[in-house]
Design brief:
Layout lengths: L7 H6 L24 H23 L5 H16 L2 H25 L1 H14 L12 H12 L13 H47 L1
Helix pairs in contact: 2-3, 2-5, 3-4, 6-7
GO molecular function: phospholipase A2 activity
GO biological process, one term: arachidonate secretion
Length: 208
């Protein structure tokens, strides 16, 4: 079982929390979007993976209610659906999936929320009393996702060097994620074009 999450926002949390290793209360074992349907999970992880990690971390942050985490989760999902690379093609499907995922965690996420709070009580230091919803890095990251703009955080004196570095890492991760999405989209259309050409060739052969 992979117990150590790989998304940068969770790595940032390690500045404040002990490494959970395989602690039984690490919420959802950082498994991305917890959807028990293979294809749907793959799509959700590709589009909403970072937002699911933020939601996991929100559950484990002291002082958050489940409702607050779930509402923030839904807002973050919807902000991704406005991103040009996805929204221009699949906006309606994206929003439907976002609402479905929000409804699921809101209805059956109580135990995950309890587990996350138990984790924070057992492992987190006093410094990590700020809600993840109030974290400056997370707020800037959400703004980056929503606005689809480069954030020159190093010029912002309100952030510490550590926060600037964490955000730059997250921005790079987001760029790589979207680059991978664009590559997969090109491969999909290339395969579809080749298939269509083969069908046309076969059809012309039959007409002869």
């Amino acid at each position: 079982m992979n117990c150590v999450p790989d998304f940068p926002i969770v790595e940032y949390a390690y500045m404040y929390c002990e490494d959970p290793g395989c602690d039984e209360f690490w919420p959802l074992r950082a498994d991305g979007c917890s959807i028990p349907v293979p294809y749907v999970k793959d799509v959700s992880d590709m589009v909403f993976g970072s937002e699911c990690e933020l939601h996991d971390l929100c559950y484990a942050a002291p002082g958050n209610t489940q409702d607050a985490c779930d509402v923030a989760f839904y807002q973050n999902l919807m902000s991704v659906c406005q991103y040009g690379g996805i929204a221009s093609v699949l906006k309606r499907d994206c929003e439907l999936l976002a609402y479905t995922m929000y409804s699921a965690v809101h209805l059956i996420g109580k135990q995950s929320y309890v587990n996350g709070n138990l984790f924070s009580q057992r492992h987190c230091k006093e410094l990590y009393v700020d809600s993840i919803l109030e974290s400056r890095v997370v707020r800037y990251y959400i703004q980056y996702l929503s606005d689809n703009r480069e954030q020159c955080v190093l010029d912002n004196p309100s952030l510490t060097p550590e926060e600037c570095l964490a955000l730059r890492v997250m921005q790079d991760a987001w760029k790589k994620k979207m680059a991978a999405f664009e590559r997969q989209k090109k491969i999909y259309w290339a395969k579809k074009t080749i298939k269509k050409a083969a069908e046309l060739k076969l059809l012309r052969g039959r007409k002869k």
